[in-house]
Amino acid sequence: MNAFLHSATAYQFFKVAVIGAGNVGRTLAQRIIEKNVADVVLLDIVPGLPQGIALDLMSARGIEGQDSQIVGTNNYEDTADANIVVITAGLARRPGMSRDDLLAINAKIVAEAAEKALKYSPDAIFLVITNPLDVMTYLTWKVTGLPSQRVMGMAGILDSSRLQLFIAMQLGVCSADISTMVLGGHGDLMLPLPRYCTVRGVPITELLDTSTIDQLVERTRNGGAEIVKLLQTGGAYYAPSSSACVMIAAILRNQSRLLPAATYLQGEYGLEDVFLGVPCRLGCHGVESILEVSLTESEKEALHISAQSVRKNVELAIASLG
Ligand code: TXD
User: Fold this and answer.
1) pLDDT digit string (tens) for 195-233?
2) Half-sphere exposure of residue 117, counting CA atoms within 13 Å on the CB side?
3) Which of 9, 21, 66, 227 is the most buried (most CB within 10 A)?
4) Ordered alpha helix ranges (H), the chain
5) Which domain holds residue 278?
6) Beta strands 198-199 and 202-203: pairing type?
7) Helix, strand or coil for residue 56?
8) Does any domain span residue 3?
9) Centroid of ligand 1 to alpha carbon of 90 (angstroms)
10) What CATH number does the domain containing 87 carry?
11) Which of 153, 176, 204 delimits the end of a domain?
């Protein structure tokens, strides 16, 4: 082999195992490889499905100019030594369903996926996407027995980016100039915090009246359901996969980014033994620290109500596993 080719093939990428090759899993895989964040192993239970998607994505490799690679598989052995395991396997909502309606069936799928993936990648960081998100993240932590720093859930970036879009559309400015914050569980009880939303540092409370802000907050809470209703056949996946890709890059590139993630609380925000969305510093060790922002009494109460609902569903999920 000539020296040039040798050095080209010697380049080592990180490895991300994406479990579930449905809409979110395959779109996330595409984003990861097109941005050269890592190599991907895409796994699904349906024979041929991940292999077909991988071959299709690899066929675009020369056109897109990407260096990283993807393989599809039905076998957990192929996910061995992944740096990050992403769990997207499970059912998605259909119109009229809440995220909690997916509880029992997804609990079984996620618990099994987490257990099998851990066997081959004991050093991985686990990123959970399957709904109901905060419950499935707790379950993954329980099943794997990993330090809580290495298990997290994706939802807060998505919810924040929806609020960012709605504010941008209302003000007629670019989304990128808007910074938003949404705490709490990924469900109807999520807690968008307008006080902490700014347009290039200017609080939105100075630019929009209360009733307009309330409408944008409500649309954010229902953002997922609005898309499910329009699609009729499943849920959102473009923005969810973008959100997960940002978290994966933050971890693999040790970026110390401050991003919302569902993380294990041990006294922060007055809450214990629950996974809930809060701002975290993400780096190569996973969740490296949690930022506690000050909350008003009513915001605190809303966060605790959201945590209570997650806890109740965790109990139901664990009971459903028998
Ligand atoms: O913000 C968030 N966290 C979310 C969560 C945003 C969007 C979607 N969210 C949830 O992700 C959604 O409610 C679902 O619970 C998951 C996956 O959503 P997706 O839209 O990708 O669902 P699909 O298209 O139905 O794909 C699910 C895939 C499908 O290919 C199945 O064959 C596979 O999961 N599946 C499995 N793979 C491996 N192992 C097992 N046991 C398994 N069971 C199903």
Assistant:
1) 999 999 999 999 999 999 999 999 999 999 999 999 999
2) 37
3) 21
4) 3-10, 23-34, 49-59, 61-64, 103-120, 133-144, 156-171, 210-221, 223-231, 238-252, 297-321
5) 156-320
6) antiparallel
7) helix
8) no
9) 4
10) 3.40.50.720
11) 153
Query: How far lies 118's CA from each of 77, 150, 153, in Å?
Result: 11, 12, 16
Instruction: Indicate if 128 and 181 belong to the same structural domain.
Output: no
* Phi and psi based region of residue 157 (left: phi greater than 0; alpha: psi -120 to 50; beta: remaining): alpha
CATH number at residue 292: 3.90.110.10
The pLDDT value recorded for residue 12 is 65
Residues 163 and 140 in one domain: no
pLDDT digits over 17-41, tens only? 999 999 999 999 999 999 999 999 9
pLDDT value of residue 7: 46
Using the mean position of ligand 1's atoms as its centre, give its distance from the Cα of residue 88 in Å.
5
User: Using CA atoms, how far apart are residues 262 and 184, in angstroms rounded to an integer?
Assistant: 8
User: Residue 10: what pLDDT?
Assistant: 45
The answer to the question of residue 304 being in a domain is yes
Please state, in angstroms and rounded to a whole number, the distance separating the CA atoms of residues 13 and 39.
Answer: 6
Final residue before a domain boundary, out of 136, 153, 170: 153
Q: Is 191 helix (H, G, I), strand (E, B) or coil?
A: strand
Number of domains in the chain: 2
Residue 186 appears among annotated catalytic residues: yes
- Tell me 139's DSSP state: H
Phi, psi (degrees; rounded to nearest 5) at 69 = -125, 165
Ligand 1 in reach of 240 Cβ (< 6 A): yes
Please state, in angstroms and as integers, the Cα–Cα distance from residue 280 to each residue in 157, 260, 273, following that order. 11, 6, 17
Pocket probe mutation, ligand 1, options 88, 222, 276, max atoms within 8 Å of Cβ: 88
What single string gives the DSSP state of each residue in 300-313? HHHHHHHHHHHHHH
